Amino acid sequence: MNDMWDAPLDDQPPADRPAELDSERVIAANVMDRPELIDELAAEFDPADITTDWYRWVWHAVDEIRQTLTAGDIRWQSVHRQLSAWKASGYLPIPCPGEAQLAELYNAVTPGTTEWHAAKVTQAAVAARLIAHGYSCITRGRSAAFNPDDDIAAAQTELDGVVRTNEQAELSTIGDLLGDSLVRAVTEPTQEDRIPTGFVDLDSLLCGGWSPGRLVVVGARPAMGKTTIGQDFVRAAAIRHGIPTLLESLEMTKPELSDRILCAEARIAHHHLQAGIATDDDMARAARRAPVIAAAPLYISDSPILSLPVLRGRVRHLVRTAGLRLVLVDYLQLMQAPKAENRQQAVAEISRGLKLMAKEFGITVIILCQLNRGPEQRTEKKPLVSDLRESGAIEQDADMVILLHREDAYERESPRAGEADLIVGKNRGGPTATITCAFQGHFARFVDMAQT
User: Distance between CA 145 and CA 142 in Å, rounded?
Assistant: First the structure.
């Protein structure tokens, strides 16, 4: 057994990668006989999976010729003329097959079998890409520059590409979609497709809560309470409604997060917990809430370095294993930026990546974000969507932008002391509004002020 593990491994995939040469030949022959097969196979088959060069180029030649063909087959003479013209112009990178080869191919037509052979070629291509991916993983693991976080996340992303997604397979007609729209028009959303926010008025504005596939940006100036409001959203989903949730904190440690969640749930003064002077009443409430908190499907990470590929790998794993539906990242400006020409472009790539991740996995992604100093330069101090720091792409990619504002953060004697505004400055497909809630900083939480 030791000899097996110690045996040297090639750094390149084997030359005899899986292929279905007979099936490739049948496909090339059949599209000459029935050019319309190219359209019929378009949703499920990619001609790039054909490994034999000249079979693949026959496919492309038929595809070119049929643009001006009204009906009927395409004989080998026409294919030969097209390939010869491409060769003369330098477009064809392989030797042009002779007329005799093409005539023999034309006579190898096997009607009614194309879909079956196409499936075999596709399966062989997937197997070949899987083998190549395995060797890529070996190369990464052997590299002196191997980085577990980056390389494993990149390998997971590459693995997703082993099975190609054909965009044409996702096309739908409006007739296919209209029936579901009519059903939604008379069906109130449930927790199956909405995640409660923990605030009645905000849920009402969102028709029941957060929607899948959405990117939500929560912006605030420092010390305004954006981490606290983010944890309130997380608590409402995971603890109160049992919805699998991931909390990624780049600013606080796991013990700090656990302390704050316990204080918010059990109404323990945060400074009492920190000083270790919680009362008997505090501990009684904690004892009642602890089993509920412990049973919640809330996953917490306090990694100080978080890149988009690492987050995507973690989300993919939790979607598959735990049914993850909500992700909160605290906060955007602390995420590891990809290489880019400038900071604005790097942040734009992060925000776009987060939106694509939400859409791909069908989850809600909430990203906390710092605002620039714009609010402090205005008389009312109220933030605007344009105050989002470093990139206008954040506003563009977000489906919803919520700005957190507390008057008493600027004026302690404000008549609205203890109140906070959740200013919904952008709500794609819905109305905007300002939701008022109460700030209980000593319990590390915001609470609902809705009357209904």
Answer: 9
What is the token pair recorded at 433? 């509004």
Average confidence (pLDDT) per 10 residues, the chain, 452 residues: 38 55 87 83 80 86 78 79 85 84 84 86 85 84 81 75 57 74 74 83 86 89 86 91 90 86 86 84 87 89 81 84 90 75 75 86 90 76 76 77 85 81 85 87 84 50
Consecutive H or E run containing 420: strand 419-427
How far, rounded to the nearest angstrom, does the alpha carbon of residue 349 sit from its chain's CA centroid? 13
The rounded distance, in Å, linking the Cα atoms of 179 and 45 is: 29
**0.70 exceeded by pTM:** no
CB 439 within 8 A of CB 446: yes
In order of 170, 382, 399, the CA distances from 184 in angstroms are 21, 36, 20
Alpha-carbon torsion angle 99, 105, 109, 110, nearest 10: 180
Name the maximum alpha-carbon separation found in the chain: 94
Tell me how far apart the alpha carbons of residues 148 and 151 are, in angstroms, rounded to a whole number: 5
8-state DSSP, 210: B
| 239 vs 256: CA distance, rounded Å | 17
Sort 193 into a burial class: Cβ within 10 Å, 0-12 / 13-18 / 19+. Answer: middle
Query: What crossing angle do the helices spanning 148-160 and 114-142 adopt, rounded to 10°?
Result: 170
